[in-house]
Input
Amino acid sequence: MAERRDRITESATAALVPDRSGWIRRADVSLRTHYPNLVTRIFEIAPHQFRIVFDRSLQDAAQVDFEEFRPVTLQANVSNEIPTNFVREIPTIPDNELARNFEGFPFNTNQLFNLVAARFPNFPISAIRDGGTPMTITVELGSRLEPAQEREVLDFCNGIGAPAPFRLEVAGPPASSAENPILRPPIGMDDALFVRAFRLRPSAPSFVRADEAFWFI
Output
């Protein structure tokens, strides 16, 4: 009875843990960037536990410091041995699709907001926050979107491969009386290489918007 109860508890806990397949795929990209000769395979060896496998003739896994590439909280390791039992094999991100959907990048909320605001500059996206049990990522709107627009936003956000599902929430007045807010850049965006979305810089010249749109073609 105790063993069965433990299994039920483990299953319930696993169901509450967000899907981290996007993170392990991006960690695999980081690993391959450092070791460009590797041909890797990714396995989920247990719920939310991963292993990246490559041939020993290419690189001895014991000599790889995977902590350099593993996001904190991601349960993963590297090996030269293909597991005999596993939950699933996860496809790697091909070299020619490294920026596709920005999948697996470990964005913080400010960075994620900047990305979504850049992708949808004409939508009333006012903030992004996370939390709850199980965790969700909420895209706050200043006014309602049309159903097709909602699907467009959610399809893009879910394609990022974040370790939690996205939801939309209208935090402002109805669409008939709402106006797109003029947004201030989030606190902490002081990285010289960080490019703020055109939406956050209404005084920027039009070619900035054209350049930004190029990244989402």
About this structure: Residues 2-100 form one domain.
